[in-house]
Design brief:
The protein is α/β, with parallel strands linked by helices. The chain folds into two domains: 121 residues, Response regulator (Rossmann fold, 3-Layer(aba) Sandwich); 106 residues, Arc Repressor Mutant, subunit A (Orthogonal Bundle), CATH 1.10.10. The chain contains eight helices and twelve strands. Helix 2 packs parallel to helix 3, helix 6 packs across helix 7 and helix 6 crosses helix 8. It is elongated and about 55 Å long.
């Protein structure tokens, strides 16, 4: 009988009360949790061991969360990152997401919401892996666009396209279901993992940035198409010949 190991999480948080509470609740949900109290220790642990998720505070002694996120995204192996920030300004959240964080949570937060977001990230990762396993090839090729699912690598006409974690998730979701129309609410639920009430503009901004990277003419897209009054769909293979 094979016993599956629980998902392993690294929590990088210098506030002992917060780290203790978060660790307690995540372990109650069946996760294995290691804690690092400063940025340098957190980066060392994240690079030295295989974790399934890093929960990363933005403001840390030694090295801040943005720098840790930047360095982890420079690694070959991909690990999801949930960023915790006491900064409420939109620019701080955008910078974190642009550097490759998969999600963010602003302090003060409820531990129940953090647990829900952790579970949502694991659901998304599981869905992506299941889709990759179901394919005969670890590549999705649509026209000049090639997605290498195991490496989360995207090329267009042979040129590497640098995408943020969420831009990649959005593109992968679209490309895995070419021709299917999604509302903004559906994309929030299926790509972000749960509904962000009042945050449907998040989909628009991510699609605009994605188009800016993969479309020759973003104003007249070939890949990510707008279905007016409904939402978006990805072009089908025959549309890209």
């Amino acid at each position: 009988m094979i016993v599956e190991k629980p998902p392993k999480i690294l929590l990088v948080e210098d506030d002992k009360d917060i780290s203790h509470l978060v660790k307690l609740h995540l372990e109650d949900e069946g996760f294995s949790v290691d804690v690092a109290a400063d940025g340098s220790e957190g980066l060392t642990r994240a690079q030295g061991q295989a974790y399934d998720l890093v929960v990363l505070d933005l403001m840390l002694p030694g090295m801040d969360g943005l720098e840790i996120c930047r360095r982890l995204r420079g690694e070959t192996d991909y690990v999801p990152i949930l960023m915790l920030t006491a900064k409420a300004s939109e620019i701080d959240r955008i910078v974190g997401l642009e550097l490759g964080a998969d999600d963010y949570l602003t302090k003060p937060f409820s531990v129940r919401e953090l647990v829900a977001r952790v579970k949502a990230i694991f659901r998304r990762v599981g869905a992506v892996r299941a889709q990759a396993d179901a394919q005969d090839s670890p590549f999705i090729t649509l026209g000049a666009l090639v997605i290498e699912t195991e490496k989360r690598k995207v090329t267009l006409d042979g040129e590497l396209i640098n995408l943020t974690a969420k831009e990649y998730d959005l593109l992968h979701h679209f490309a895995s279901h070419p021709g299917r129309v999604y509302t903004r609410a559906q994309l929030l639920d299926q790509v972000w993992g749960y509904g962000y009430e009042g945050y449907e503009h998040t989909v628009n901004s991510h699609i605009n940035r994605l188009r800016g990277k993969i479309e020759t003419d973003p104003a007249n897209p070939r890949y990510v198409l707008t279905i007016w009054g409904v939402g978006y769909r990805f072009a089908e293979p025959q549309d890209l010949k």
